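Fig. S4 source data, part A: sequence.
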Amino acid sequence: MRNLIEGQSLKLNTGALMPAIALGMSAREESPEETSAYFRKGLEIGYRHFDTASVYRTESMMGEVLEDVLNSGTFKREELFITSKLAPSQTHADDVILALRTSLSQLRLEYVDLYLIHFPVRIKAGTKLTIPMPEDSFCPSIWSVYGRCSSNAWNLD
């Protein structure tokens, strides 16, 4: 399978190449089956870099597909670049390793290529983050594209 973005990678300080274009696996309103199909279609059309996070709740669906395509030999692990993120409620030093292990378990991987801090703040587990959007702001129309206008609060549990 040809890489959609072959030759369009960024060289990291480790020497690893990170595909410049990633398919975001953010929180989706579709069913788990539709989310898995979306991820599988991304692989099929040539995406090799996938961006997810524990707060998106898509890691387990990705894990099922990853296990399938890696075990079948369709892809080798080193052909894929997986980014995940640490939830704001898990940024305490005591929580980081467990959070990463949970993501790896959900993704059914031994490693992720890039692990980021989702937000550079510590938020208490279960906190609702409210993002105010004035009625006359352009934000509601933009956010509606992402399905966020129906609720301007995120549960960061």
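Fig. S4 source data, part B ends here. The CA atoms of residues 39 and 108 lie 15 Å apart.
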